[in-house]
Design a protein that fits this description.
alpha/beta, 9 strands
Amino acid sequence: MSESVVLVERNDAVATVTLNRPDARNALSQELRKALWQAMSELEADVSVAAIVLTGADPAFCAGLDLKELASTAGAALGETGATGDTATGRGPIPPMETPVIGAINGVAVTGGFEVALACDFLVASERAAFADTHARMGIMPGWGLTVLLPEAVGFRRAKELSTTGNFLDAPTALAWGLVNHVVPHDELVPFAQQLAADIATNDQAGVRRMLQTYEEGALVTRGEAWALEGRVAGEWQAGGRDGADLEARRKAVTERGRSQV
């Protein structure tokens, strides 16, 4: 049997998902789109998974939709490229996730591959990483949230530049623009991202998920409404029967961890 187009590795509470079509630069074939959606759905449903690292098999992260497959498939249309392989979901290439997802960008992330990266909660880049939005060069429109998520990451003017020029953004510039959180040597990329995931796993998992949900909800409303939202969530959280008996132990653990990091 041929190797799966999506590989899943577990290390305690951390899962690593690898797009695995290296000869095709991990282009998003129908098979890969379905396998990625299924793998992420299964990990989301597994309460023992605290964080996920999403990366690609070298040399690329993801070259976008498999245009060769689309061109050779009778009746195929670019509008029928949803993550499930049937119709567009309108919400991105992976299912809605409460589990934190760290993108470990090991090479180029182009167009649909760029949208896969943007669907992650935050990104770590290899020195070999590069990003490009070539939708306009291909004469197609993004449908997985690029016009929403890219300006959130780099600002409207820089997003417009990337989308209208189709130019590549290298890793150091991506860091300077705020698209990625870290740039690390290529061989250290996945271990670095996995360590961040392990750090997430040491936290209160319900708290992590509610924090991410609050960020997402706050992004959809005005600034004033976001302040009110946070206050409401905080009140509901504290009134929800959270056990404060171990608060002092948690405080001491946070203090000791802080001393080890600074």
